[in-house]
Amino acid sequence: MKTFLSLLTFLALTSMASAAKEGWLDDYEKAKVQAKAENKKILLDFTGSDWCGWCIKLDKEVFSQQAWKDYAAKNLVLVEVDFPRGTPLPEATKKQNDALAKKFQIRGYPTIVITSASGTKRGELGYVEGGPEAFIKALKKAD
Asked: Which candidate among 10, 66, 79, 112 keeps its CA 20 to 30 Å from the CA of 23?
């Protein structure tokens, strides 16, 4: 029984570790399929979710705000491309994230990349001060 409970605890923790934040995907190929089906662009958030101060600030000031969630739901498919230091990711997710960072030549965090549904890069930006409204305005300019 003790081994069974340990296994359940392990499975619960590993499934939580691999899940992107609410409203976000962590699978780029699924995002492309969804973006094509919904005629939306893809927003890739290259982040160090558990160590990068500016990433945490962007998440708190923009991505967790209702104005952002409303805008994103209508216009974007969101993908979290995470590079945590203290949270293990599944090997497939790590490989995908490394490949995306190489493809889009990511040099720092946070980096936001906007692509078409097919994956063609349309724009890039980083942290923007001023909450969701300022971020959305900068995002539209970057596209």
From this structure: 10
Q: Which residue range(s) make up the domain with 73?
A: 21-142
User: Rounded to whole angstroms, how far apart are CA atoms 78 and 76?
Assistant: 6
**Mapping DSSP to helix (H, G, I), strand (E, B) and coil, where does residue 28 land?**
helix
Question: How long, in residues, is the chain?
Answer: 143
Using one digit for the tens of pLDDT, what is the confidence trace for 33-67?
999 999 999 999 999 999 999 999 999 999 999 99
Asked whether residue 89 is assigned to any structural domain, the reply reads yes
pTM for the full model? 0.86
- The CATH number for 57's domain is 3.40.30.10
3-state helix, strand, coil in the chain (%, to 5): 50, 15, 30
